[in-house]
Design goal:
heterodimer; A: 228 residues; alpha/beta; Nucleotidyltransferase, domain 5; 6 strands; 44% helix; B: 611 residues; alpha+beta; Jelly Rolls; CBS-domain; four-stranded antiparallel beta sheet; 24 helices; 23 strands; 16% strand
């Protein structure tokens, strides 16, 4: 229970240190957050688009998220926020199809984070391949809030690895890509991609995995949580 | 941070393919999307029972089985289809349980939101409160801009009284600079006079121009109402070879349209080819023209023409080729030694031809041909049937062609053919009846055909045993409802062979309607018009009539669209439509159409006591 204890202590510390009301509220609630079955655990599924892979050098240009409650995704909670940045999207445009002109229409990163952490209050974070996205969010939120915010995270890529290890199935290169995994779980393929669609796609994948891992719907999420 | 359209447009996009939500505008779709929750059910799980009302579920992916309390199968639903609402199974609503047949991703709407949606949107409210008949009719409504003949009228008509002298009328026409006038008898339209009439009937005959115009007018001309579709008017003129058509507002003439007016208004009208056909003087030139047929078909389909009219227009072209071939043959062989009529059967008779079609035709002679007469008609038939084959209307595999001496006989022999089939119904004669009862005269002495039809129909109408055989034959063509169940199971991507929409859909409807038409002694061959006439005579009730009509329209629309795609891809058009190629919406509607056909068949079985 060491990581969990440390996470809670960091939550309380952040709540004390940060003057921003949204951050303080997020930190206060994250300290009391308990993870149980999916049906009882509020989740926020998030995906980011960035100008590159280095959290200290590159910028977030889009944030997409959706919320899960009682094991269902609420379409009304879908958000897609474009972030304005002075850094050119450069070659990364080929991946996320956001051009400098699109990004110019965005909001400042502070406003984007404010909305995100408001929506994430009292929720477990969900990513597909959490490492990179969380690194960007931690770095950006430290600049914004002045404290390193703690994250309690589910990762569909990790979940799949656990499942395969349990079944002693090998993992080949590319097996864990979001779209490939979704096809394995009979989920529809999305032709378009943006931060929101990928966040929704990840949320749907979590629903499918939870059903498949325990068809009674009582899969315990706690063993699959990572703390950042 | 407020939501914006961007947030859910990918959800709205899918909703737009789901009936009835495709009737919503962008704002309505986004509002609807915001009420949804996404849920996942693994294969075998029970999703919910329809009691108490669970709200509405949209299948985003997967398949769902609906069963009753005793677990009896009721229906299957797949991607893009709905459940959760009141569903009619074979005409009645039942409580049902929904189970995941495959892993399912569902979009769910709560009871309250569903209630609100129905209350706020009239079309959607009607959809969920009505029987599938009404639904199908909404689904076949295809938006297309019909131009009415009213829009083509340029000026008030010039009309004269029937007592006016020919000279006065001619002077008036000159002063008004018109080439035709309407003639009124006691204020009602009773005739029409054109430049051509004055030339042929007055000057060439050296007729006294002091006579009343009534003497030389064309009496009781065909007219159209002002709100008639332009294409309808053009079809009428081309079929009857009229050049001028009075346009009426009730009893009052509003003006005149000419075929030229219509063709000019729609430059490049597909039916221009009909005029060109009549200008050709050799089979080679006709073959050259026939190369335009694939493009013509594609244009008719893609211009969003009314589905009933596409069949009629395509047939009009076939008729024109046939008539022109006969005329050229007559030029080469000399005038016919005795009166005859060229008749067509099957889809050409029904004016329901599509891209793929073979020839079914015959000749009715006024009396038995003797000596050289036999040779004459043999040569004529050979010229026309061979010509049609070269134009792409391939020989009938069953040899029902004028080329076959059996179908090139006198009126009396034709009557005896029909008597034989009707009095001694055998499977073969029932098959013949289903072909030969759809009959239409395209050239020559059409009175012969009329007499033949009157004879055959009277016989058939009085012979219930014969019609019972026909009814039994109808029931041999069951609509493929099982196919849809199977299809759901085949959704792993393996291709099914496709559905023969002609044999499984159009043939059963045509056969059903044919019997109803026989009950009333209707000579008309076109299925849509037969439905109308059979309803007027009481053999079909309004509800069944409109259901069958909608079902036929939908099946034909899918078939014709499919063929148009094939033609454009340079493939040979077929009647096989791979169900995988249809959108969930079309699939759902197609299934509903087949269910209506099944209902109508059951009613027929009940009436004729055949099961």
């Amino acid at each position: 229970m060491f990581p969990r204890w440390r996470y809670r202590r960091r939550c309380r510390a952040a709540a004390r240190q940060c003057g921003l009301p949204t951050v303080a509220a997020y930190a206060k609630d994250c300290a009391g957050l308990d993870v149980d079955k999916l049906a009882n655990t509020p989740v926020i599924s998030v995906d980011l688009e960035m100008t590159g892979l280095d959290a200290t050098q590159n910028h977030i240009i889009a944030i997409g998220w959706t919320q899960l409650d009682k094991g269902r995704i609420s379409v009304a909670s879908n958000r897609h926020v474009l972030i304005s940045t002075k850094q050119s999207v450069g070659h990364s445009a080929a991946i996320h199809e956001l051009r400098d002109s699109d990004v110019a229409e965005g909001v400042p990163i502070e406003d984007g984070l404010e909305a995100l952490f408001e929506a994430a209050r009292g929720r477990v974070w969900l990513f597909h391949h959490a490492g990179l996205d969380v690194a960007f969010l931690r770095y950006a939120s430290r600049l914004w809030a002045g404290v390193a915010l703690p994250f309690m995270v589910l990762d569909t890529m990790n979940l799949e690895l656990t499942i395969r290890k349990r079944r002693e199935q090998p993992v080949h290169h590319g097996d864990l890509q979001l779209n490939k995994l979704r096809a394995n779980y009979n989920l529809p393929g999305y032709t378009a991609h943006n931060a929101l669609i990928d966040a929704c796609a990840t949320a749907e994948l979590l629903l499918a995995m939870a059903e498949k891992m325990d068809s009674s719907g009582s899969l315990r999420l706690q063993p699959h949580i990572n703390y950042y | 941070m407020p939501t914006n359209y961007h947030d859910i447009s990918f959800i709205a996009e899918f909703l737009h393919t789901v009936h009835p939500f495709n009737s919503l505008d962008s704002e309505g779709l986004h509002k609807l999307a915001r009420t949804l929750e996404v849920a996942y059910y693994a294969q075998g799980k029970t999703i919910f029972s329809s009691k108490p009302a669970p709200g509405l579920a949209i299948i985003r992916k997967g398949a769902v089985r609906l069963v009753d309390e005793s677990h009896k199968f009721l229906d299957k639903r797949s991607e893009g289809e709905l459940f959760g609402h009141d569903i009619y199974f074979h005409g009645e609503t039942k409580d049902y349980i929904a189970e995941a047949e495959e892993d399912c991703l569902l979009w769910l709407m709560g009871v309250e939101d569903f209630k609100k949606l129905r209350a706020e949107n009239k079309l959607i409210g009607e959809y969920f409160s009505s029987h599938l008949k009404t639904r199908l009719s909404a689904a076949t409504e295809i938006k297309h801009s019909i131009t009415q003949v009213r829009d083509l009228l340029k000026r008030e008509p010039v009309s004269v009284d029937s007592n006016m002298s020919i000279l006065e009328v001619a002077r008036l026409m000159s002063a008004e600079r018109v080439s035709s006038v309407l003639v009124l008898c006691d204020g009602n339209l009773c005739g029409i006079v054109t430049d051509k009439d004055l030339r042929h009937r007055v000057i060439a005959q050296a007729l006294d121009t002091g006579l009343a115009i009534a003497e030389v007018m064309t009496k009781d001309p065909k007219s159209v109402p002002a709100d008639a579709d332009v294409d309808e008017a053009l079809l009428l003129m081309m079929r009857q070879n009229y050049h001028h058509l009075p346009v009426m507002d009730g009893p009052r003439p509003l003006g005149l349209v000419t075929a030229g007016d219509i063709l000019r208004a729609q430059s490049e009208h597909p039916l221009r080819i009909v005029r060109d056909i009549y200008k050709q003087n050799s089979i080679e030139e006709l073959i050259e023209l026939s190369h335009r047929l694939p493009l013509l078909f594609e244009r008719l389909v893609n211009l969003g023409r009314d589905i009933e009219q596409i069949g009629r227009m395509v047939t009009l072209v076939t008729d024109a080729f046939t008539i022109r071939l006969i005329q050229i043959a007559e030029q080469q062989l000399g005038p016919p030694p005795l009166p005859f009529a060229w008749i067509v059967f099957g889809s050409q008779a029904r004016e329901a031809q599509t891209a793929r079609t073979d020839q079914d035709n015959g000749i009715v002679l006024e009396r038995d041909a003797v000596g050289d007469e036999v040779t004459y008609f043999e040569k004529l038939s050979k010229y026309v049937c061979d010509g049609l084959d070269k134009l792409g209307y391939v020989y009938c595999p069953g040899e029902i062609m004028a080329l076959n001496v059996k179908w090139r006989v006198s009126l009396d022999k034709w009557k005896r053919h029909f008597d034989g089939w009707i009095d001694q119904p055998t499977p073969k004669s029932v098959m013949y009846s289903s072909i030969f009862f759809d009959i239409r005269c395209v050239y020559g002495e059409c009175a012969l055909v009329d007499e033949l039809q009157s004879h055959a129909i009277t016989r058939a109408k009085d012979n219930r045993i014969f019609r019972r055989f026909m009814a039994a034959n109808v029931l041999n063509h069951k609509p493929p409802l099982g196919f849809f169940r199977r299809f759901v199971q085949e959704s792993d991507g393996s291709h099914s062979e496709g559905l023969n929409l002609k044999h499984r859909g159009i043939v059963p409807i045509t056969a059903l309607v044919r019997i109803r038409a026989l009950e009333c002694g209707i000579k008309e061959a076109n299925t849509y018009r037969r439905i109308k006439l059979a309803t007027a005579c009481g053999a079909m009730n309004e509800d069944d009539a409109s259901s069958l009509r909608d079902a036929l329209r939908l099946i034909n629309r899918i078939r014709i669209n499919h063929q148009s795609t094939q033609v454009m891809a340079g493939e040979t058009p077929t009647n096989f439509v791979p169900i995988e190629d249809l959108s969930p919406l079309l699939r759902r509607n197609l299934k509903a159409a087949f269910m209506l056909v099944e209902e109508a068949q059951n009613a027929l079985a009940l009436r004729y006591q055949v099961l």
